[in-house]
# Entry
Amino acid sequence: MEPFHYLLVLLACLAITAPLEWVVGARVYRRPRRLTLTLVIAMTPFIVWDLVGIARGHWDFSSRYTLSIDLGGVMPLEELLFFVVIPICALLTHQAVLRLGARVWPRGRLAREARELGAVAPSTSEVEQGAPRA
# Structure
């Protein structure tokens, strides 16, 4: 069971945050281009950082807690999955907070940010005033 620890933690993170897509309406998976762009931007510097750290001997990964599937013989598969899963969980959480905040405080800062990001529809007063949509 130990080789699956890293993978199980990642799956737990996804399992905890995935319902935010459907229950709260986070709309992260419904925007695949935006999600892909965000992942590429988030992953690139951290993968480079990781590869440099591994090459310089600053850290390594125990085969005891990973599946021993190394990408390029350097980085374990779970580490690459970490750079995909954690940003997705963060996006789901961020979008859920924006949407819930917009519902609770429709005239507050979270509501404005949610409208600017297109996470919620503009308020009735904005539509009546002809305010541009985000």
